[in-house]
Hints:
By secondary structure, this protein is mainly β. 11% of the residues lie in helices and 52% in strands. The protein is built from two helices and ten strands. It has helices at 5-19, 93-100; strands at residues 33-50, 54-60, 63-70, 75-84, 88-89, 112-122, 127-136, 139-154, 162-173, 188-202.
Amino acid sequence: MKCTGTALKRNALAAAILAGGMVISGNAVAEPQKYTIDDEHFTMTFKVMHIGYARVIGMFREVEGQFVYDPEKQTVSDGEVVFQADSVFTNHEERDEHLRGEDFLNVSEHPEIRFEVTGFEMTGESTGKLTGDLSMLGKTNPVTLDVVLNKAAEYPIGHGDYTLGLSAHAVIERSDWGMTYGIADELVGDEVRLQFEFEANRNDGGWF
Length: 208
């Protein structure tokens, strides 16, 4: 079977970006690689409409996560990102306290927001769709993120690890998780726009 130049480029880029370097000597087969999210280079912002005037922008400041990519099967597995709900920040102290309360995140009963990867599909030379289950307020719903793979290379400064740089976005409705405060009277929008920008470092010592 003859491969086109575009197909070869796509396969090479997918392997280089997601696998972080394949073993190509002899008959060796590339092994799944574990990547750990660099919490110093991770930002997840959310945007929610406020009374129809403008969107409030916020973020979660405490996060940890990792994932495994299998370059042979081109699949993502064992991926998980965990946000500490009480780390929510919108640059307004009273609003942040309200968000931590029962009307919104209810952090005393649900201290964590968890996203678990269920699959990944390449859609272009550097783009894909990441699917997963988002658990919040005791409920779990599927979410799909559009992902852009920005760069894959050894870090030029500091730790020097092989690093992936990614961007991703998704739109959800918070009412799907039972968070309905302010929706009926249009004080707070139901739609939440999510944007992720982050780096993940390869664990060269193995899976764990």
